[in-house]
Amino acid sequence: MITDTLIQTERLILKPMEPTMREELHPIFTDSSVRRYLMDNKIVGIDWVDDVTAASQRQFEEGSCGLWAIYQKQERTIIGFCGYIMFDQLQLGYGLLPNYWGQGYATEASRAVVNYGFRQAGMTEIIAAADVPNTASFGVMKRLGMTFWKTEGALAYYRLPMNNAN
Fold this sequence. Notes:
This protein has a single domain (2-164), classed as Gcn5-related N-acetyltransferase (GNAT) (Aminopeptidase, 3-Layer(aba) Sandwich), CATH 3.40.630.30. It has five helices and eight strands. It has helices at 22-30, 32-38, 46-61, 105-119, 135-143, and strands at 7-8, 12-16, 67-72, 78-86, 90-96, 125-131, 147-152, 155-161. The strands form two sheets. Strands 1-2-3-4-5 form a five-stranded antiparallel β-sheet, sandwiched between helices. Strands 6-8-7 form a three-stranded antiparallel β-sheet. InterPro entries: Acyl_CoA_acyltransferase, GNAT_dom, N-acetyltransferase.
């Protein structure tokens, strides 16, 4: 259930996305630096955030994994998101407001979400993808212990089998 999915790390609190977070989440998805890679530069409206939040909630309610809003413990404001997005299969995804880049937050949140996927959700492998020029995202994947798997179109895919998790 959603109430059992709160995650805390040294510096972060991760809460499953909820409709009440829409106003705080929307600026993350519409920031030009974030959407450059994450959204293929598409500008999205608040209704899109509602759809993403609803899909994430369904994933949690069905016993799978969804998306968490990332809060910095000191500020108590949403600084990004991390979690699993359904494409052909669940994929790890994350995004932070640019002010929080380069401080290890994406790696810290992703590591916690990967651990949740393996330990609580019974996942046996984690997949992540990023646009080929998105070197920062590949850095996060490598710090998680992920290894290159394949390239499809503009995306490079990395994966992490459960027995290789850091």
